[in-house]
Design goal:
With about 325 residues, the protein is of the alpha/beta class. The chain is built from twelve helices and 14 strands. The longest helix is centred in the N-terminal third of the chain and has 15 residues.
Length: about 325
């Protein structure tokens, strides 16, 4: 094991996969000489050259289109978008081209491409620098959508995404980039996509979450533990496809479920999880499913206003107490 930050784990995954497979290439705005806006790809162009770590024009639709074309030509591109907010111009390429190619070609063609982007609030970036957009892509057949929480999963899931023969959209919460340093396995390390991770066992309440929500849930669980409440935390890791078996296990164990994410509440990933629990696990429930998510509005620049909109551990703890009272 090594103690790595989230960013270091991502960089390690990219480096090892590029060493292992010469078809792996990186492209995006400033990923080469600068090493990316958050320095995820720092040093990789020096190590692997300009043909494998390619600085692109400021054109997201072009980045996505070039990556898809490269995948069709036999490469395994990793396309970086500087912020998840910037991915929207590439929507047509990702959703109408990459996601549909297996279906359109009767399985003859695949599209092994990873679309990476930093997402989420907490850095007071306001519009264009703070959105959580995973629910848009999770709705689309043919796409896998990954949102890791811990450094080990940043490494293991990115490696799995690069090796996958179908398109993967990979979101990294920028608040997690340098805030935490945790154990990460040395050497090649791959975590399968579509498999949730039990972050903390518990007996009274279940928090089902992903991304930065895991850290909010940990702090909230610590707060209510002193009150005699044992909270289980399930980290989904992949929001498309959902690990419904893992969701069922934790709900059947505790009978009380709280779904947590930073994205807007309405029609978010939590709504799908809550609907699955209500439809398939109703007899296991001892209380209504509770959701904690961001308000349905755009994120402001002001720190005080942003704090009013997005979840935090105190609000999660309050929701856990309310859930326990049923």
């Amino acid at each position: 094991m090594a103690q790595l930050t989230f960013i270091e784990a991502l960089r390690e995954a990219l480096r090892l996969e590029m060493q292992r497979d010469p078809r792996v290439v990186i492209m995006g705005e400033d990923v080469g000489t600068k090493g990316g806006v958050f320095r995820v790809t720092q040093g990789l162009q020096t190590e692997f050259g300009e043909l494998r770590v390619l600085d692109t024009p400021l054109a997201e639709v072009g980045i996505a289109g070039a990556a898809i074309g490269a995948a069709f030509a036999g490469l395994r591109p990793v396309a970086e978008f500087q912020f998840a907010d910037y991915i929207h111009p590439a929507w047509d390429q990702i959703v109408n081209e990459a996601a549909t190619i297996r279906y359109r070609s009767y399985g003859d063609w695949s599209c092994p491409v990873v679309f990476r982007a930093p997402s989420g609030a907490g850095v007071f970036g306001g519009l264009y620098h703070s959105q959580s957009v995973e629910a848009y892509f999770a709705h689309v057949p043919g796409l896998k959508v990954v949102v890791p929480a811990i450094p080990a999963d940043a490494k293991g899931l990115l490696a799995a995404a690069i090796r996958d023969d179908d398109p993967v959209v990979f979101f990294e919460h920028k608040k997690n980039y340098r805030r935490y340093r945790e154990d990460v396995p040395d050497g090649e390390y791959v975590q399968p996509l579509g498999v949730a991770r039990l972050d903390r066992p518990g007996t009274d309440l279940s928090v089902i979450t992903y991304g930065i929500g895991v850290y909010w849930a940990r702090e909230a669980a610590d707060q209510v533990a002193s009150e005699g409440l044992s909270t289980e935390i399930l980290d989904l890791r992949t929001v498309a496809p959902l690990d419904r078996e893992a969701i069922a296990r934790t709900v059947q164990k505790t009978g009380k479920a709280l779904v947590l994410h930073e994205d807007n509440r309405t029609l978010g990933v939590g709504a799908e999880v809550a609907a699955f629990i209500a439809e398939e696990l109703f007899e296991s429930l001892d209380a209504p499913v509770v959701r904690v998510a961001a308000a349905d509005c755009h994120l402001p620049f002001a720190e005080s206003q942003e704090a009013e909109i997005i979840p935090n551990p105190t609000r999660v703890a309050a929701a856990l107490r309310r859930l326990a009272s049923y």
